[in-house]
Amino acid sequence: MRQMVKLVLFSLLILIFLSGCHSNATATDVDLFQYKNSYVGDNSAVVNTVIHLQGAQHFSGIELKTKEEPYGIVVNYAWSESELNEKEVAINNASYLFTLIQNVDWVTFNFEMHDGKEVYEMTRENLQERYEKELSEIDNEDELNELIQESLGDEHLLN
């Protein structure tokens, strides 16, 4: 009987400890630049970046292409219920991924819709050329967001 009481008390103590460690962080509370200089092969950093970007509520999967260069990322979204503009989401999210992940050369976004699939492919080289800026030199979210907003009207950002 004493063993059972000890076990219950120990379990209760662990539960209290774990609930105290629970984070109430929201997507806006996350500093995405903590993942700056990550690599495509760092699954945790890539996924944690993607789940805090635009359209994250529709995120359905990711593929990291690391077998051979050029390295890439394929991000899949179940987009049928989204009111967001997929082109703007692709530009925004690619900008973040190229800025934060140092060895990613290309990103493909697959937006599954009711009537088919929209695919946007972007390369680091193409995006940097359009921005006229080396993305690895960006050190904060405000600077990156300003660059993204200035470019959203540029129809040539996507291949």
UniProtKB/TrEMBL annotation:
Top-level taxon of the source organism: Bacteria
DUF4825 domain ranges (all copies): 32-120
UniProt keywords, alphabetically: Coiled coil, Signal
Signal sequence segment: 1-27
Cross-referenced InterPro entries: DUF4825 (IPR032250)
Coiled coil feature spans: 117-144
Name this protein carries in UniProt: DUF4825 domain-containing protein
Lineage, broadest ranks: Bacteria, Bacillati, Bacillota, Bacilli, Bacillales
